[in-house]
Write a structure and sequence with these properties.
This protein is mostly helical. The chain is 79% helix and 0% strand. The protein has helices spanning 11-22, 25-37, 41-69, 73-81, 86-119, 126-133, 137-156, 158-185, 190-198, 208-221, 228-233, 242-270, 283-295, 298-334, 338-352, 354-358, 360-389, 393-398, 407-415, 417-433. The protein starts with 10 loop residues before the first helix and ends with a helix. Bound molecules: tryptophan. Tryptophan (TRP) is lined by residues 21-22, 24-27, 220-221, 223, 226, 228, 318, 321-322, 375.
């Protein structure tokens, strides 16, 4: 059982892996429609505020906890807090199972769309096509394909699998998203898209639901609240400058979300499909955009596979971090080998995914429970843990980051404002559920 712990090979490798976890389906669609619906530029400001005041402190807390303990969530909480905290870590792992099982179903659609738009061209009726492929045997098959790819990468290991894949795919994703945004800017009618996306409306800033949407999106987008960042950080050594690295991760995540919005809205508006943006479901991504691509002619048949590949890549690098939470827990707490943990964990998650693959209501429900409730509750627990329970968190962060003066501010944020805000967001999402 006592094998030496795996580690990331380079600073950039870790940053790319963490950015890979953060940049996912949440950036590519969720951020832009939330922005468009909730006050445009005003929402972006709120979002930046929450990223800095809530997201960044909790991200740094996860990194400190993981690197300090050199263990995955369950063992890390027990290490610093005693065995009474083990169940909290176990909830992170449970959240990993739950989240990946439906995330992978959606990711399966993206791969299918990428392959089909390359080989078969566009369906004449995107709506009917989506209804036909989003559930049932076809959805299960592509979910299985996606899980096989994820399990293979995680099975190879942290350095040779996760890190290498992120080092290749993340820069590529960034270039593709920027490329599409630049192309979209050249289309007639793009201006209406920018207007829709970014026109500032400050009235929402006083609405509890808009504010809590901004906070929970900032949180979701940074992959916080279930020990994913914690697990990646458990593979870091003490040379890492955690405050700088958390800033880079948070800024890159924001940049990709923002630029994805600059790509998506001009495309939709240039083609006069704006009525369809109102439906804020994940379905809009798979119905409205294919319509836009198919009306675009030849440019569309290049853009469509590229866009859906980018989505699949974004989903893949997030999925492997979810899977790694489960795998690392089995390695650290059960003494399993990586191979066994990846195969068994992957099989259980694949089986769990059959539920959401058969019924979109199940998928929606899992997204609400995991995405809204469990992540926010997990973040609250992490903030309290690092703020009040963990011994000397500032000392841990200061290793490799001597002379950072604002660490006391970080700890204070974790102790009081972050738990208060997250408790309010949790209350809002529970209220919204019933
Ligand atoms: N951040 C991912 C996205 O933007 C989704 C996500 C939320 C996630 N929590 C996570 C990914 C935990 C990995 C681990 O789509």
């Amino acid at each position: 059982m006592v094998q030496p712990r795996e580690s990331f090979g380079s600073r950039l490798g870790f940053i790319m892996a963490a950015v890979g976890s953060a940049v996912g389906l949440g950036n590519m669609w969720r951020f832009s429609y939330l922005t468009a619906e909730n006050g445009g530029a005003a929402f972006v400001l709120l979002y930046i505020g929450f990223t800095l005041l809530i997201g960044l402190p909790v991200l740094l807390a996860e990194l400190a906890l993981g690197r300090g303990a050199q263990r995955s969530p369950i063992a890390a909480l027990v290490h610093y807090g005693g065995s009474g905290w083990g169940w909290r870590g176990a909830m992170f792992v449970a959240c990993g199972f739950l989240s990946l099982s439906y995330y992978s179903v959606i990711a399966g659609w993206t791969i299918r769309y990428a392959v089909e738009s390359l080989t078969l061209g566009f369906p004449s009726d995107p709506e009917a096509h989506f209804a036909a492929i989003s559930t049932g045997g076809a959805a299960i098959a592509w979910h299985l394909v996606f899980m096989l790819v994820s399990v293979t990468i995680v099975l190879v290991g942290v350095h040779k699998g996760i890190e290498r894949v992120a080092l290749v795919l993340m820069p590529l994703l960034f270039v593709v998203v920027c490329g599409i945004a630049i192309y979209a800017a050249t289309l007639d009618g793009a201006g209406a898209g920018y207007t829709y996306y970014l026109t500032a409306d400050f009235s929402g800033m006083f609405s509890f639901s808009v504010v809590s949407d901004a906070a929970s999106q900032a949180f979701f987008s940074l992959s916080l609240g279930m020990g994913a960042m914690l697990t990646y950080a458990s593979y870091l050594s003490e040379e890492h400058h955690l405050p700088d690295e958390s800033l880079v991760i948070a800024m890159t995540d924001f940049a990709v979300a923002f630029i994805a919005g600059l790509a998506v809205f001009p495309l939709i508006f240039a083609l006069g499909l704006s009525e369809a943006v109102g439906e804020s479901t994940v379905g809009a991504l798979f119905i409205t955009l294919p319509k836009a691509f198919s009306e675009m002619g030849p440019a569309g048949s290049v853009l469509a596979p590229v866009f859906f590949m980018a989505l699949a890549v974004a989903a893949l690098t997030s999925a492997i971090s979810l899977l790694e939470v489960v795998v690392a827990a089995a390695i650290d707490s059960l003494g399993w080998t990586r191979t066994r943990a990846a195969l068994v964990g992957g099989a259980v998650i694949t089986a769990l995914g059959v539920g959401p693959a058969l019924d979109l209501r199940v998928l929606d429900w899992m997204d609400k429970i995991a995405g809204n409730l469990l992540l926010v509750a997990g973040g609250l627990a992490l903030a309290v843990f690092v703020g009040w329970v963990m011994q000397s968190p500032m000392g841990e962060v200061a290793r490799g980051a001597e002379g950072v003066r604002w660490l006391f501010l970080w700890r204070w944020l974790l102790r009081v404002p972050v738990p208060l805000v997250l408790a309010a967001v949790l209350y809002a999402s529970i209220a919204a559920l019933f």
